[in-house]
UniProtKB/TrEMBL annotation:
InterPro entries: AAA+_ATPase, ATPase_dyneun-rel_AAA, CbbQ/NirQ/NorQ/GpvN, P-loop_NTPase
PANTHER family noted in UniProt: MAGNESIUM-CHELATASE SUBUNIT CHLD (PTHR42759:SF1), MOXR FAMILY PROTEIN (PTHR42759)
Molecular-function GO term, any one: ATP binding
Pfam families the record matches: AAA_5 (PF07728)
Protein name: MoxR-like ATPase
Source superkingdom: Bacteria
Record domain AAA+ ATPase: where: 51-279
Amino acid sequence: MQMKEELPANIKEQLQKFQRNTTAYTELIREGGYMAPNKEIIIDAVTALLLGKNILLKGPTGAGKTKFAETLSYLFQQPMFSINSSVDIDAESLLGFKTLTYEDEKQVIEFISGPVINAMEHGTFLYIDEINMAKPETLPIINGVLDYRRSITNPFTNEIVTASKGFNVIAAINEGYVGTVPLNEALKNRFIVIEIPYIQGEQLKQLIVQNTKLEDEKLVDLFVKLSSDLIEAVAQGKIGEDAASIRALLDACDLSKHIPAKRAIQRAIADKLEEDREREFIMSLAETLFS
């Protein structure tokens, strides 16, 4: 892939080195790392992070967004602090909290750093999972962390914390799910968006072979076909995106090593769904493919 001339020389050098080093990435996939549906996803994410940009991984549930973040952490040999967003997340969950402790037998107040402060001070990656699950009024706390300032005034200590070199933010978003809210434009504009689609075909077959206990090639091919049918059904609005989760499909593959495939699909995929019509649709597909 040709590097754009606008990229600084050191960035181009690191990217070209990464592109040549396919052996390490192949080994990473074999050990359970993220398998990208195309090379551009990896290159674009690496480019953004090398330029000091925040990246937002956007895609359906079970497509591998968290696995991708872990893979980027591995590729950069960079530890990663994580935040699992929810409606209950608040400033203490992000930044830290004060607690009473003892020092030379005297009781003192100590501040315990949270994931944002830890990542900034140590110069590591910060991963915010399901960022749009957090309440809209909570996230503006870290706006200064996400823009050119890379700093924040800690409301618990009144200290200004500036991120050390190497600090980067990776966030993930599932749009349109229950409990999520749209990201406001001010927050979204602080990210480079990377779309993470489901992998299919030969890549999915390779993923199943390398990451599950299923060895029967005929069954593997049938599960690849099942995944393709589920993704198509999602596109047609027949079932929700969670029914086509690659994570759930891999669970079904593992189970089918020990129990009948149709029952594995029921346990790992169908029974997770709320609507009877969706469960029936999936089991009808399973009956057709695995009878």
